[in-house]
Amino acid sequence: MLLFPKRYIGRSFQGYKLEKSLGQGRYGSCFAARSAGGKLVVLKRLHNPMKKKNTGKNHFEPVILSMLRHPAVPELLGIVNEGRSYFFVLEYMPGISIKQLL
Question: Does residue 42 register a pLDDT over 90?
């Protein structure tokens, strides 16, 4: 688990600047980020232990997301692989979270 997501705020990865933490779970952490062109996106960072545990399987999620087209599922916009950080770049979908619904 990413213990200090706030330390990532303000950092840039391949042209995406992380603005705030959106939340985290067992598999990764999500951040609101802005592209160099000003577009708001979500960067999902895989936690290193999960990345190592699932070596060889980490490509399944982006492959599946790239094939989905549904208004309730965020579109995969790309992948950022920089140093030890590996992110999925996802469409930002405003609204309330599942946690807030529950």
Answer: yes
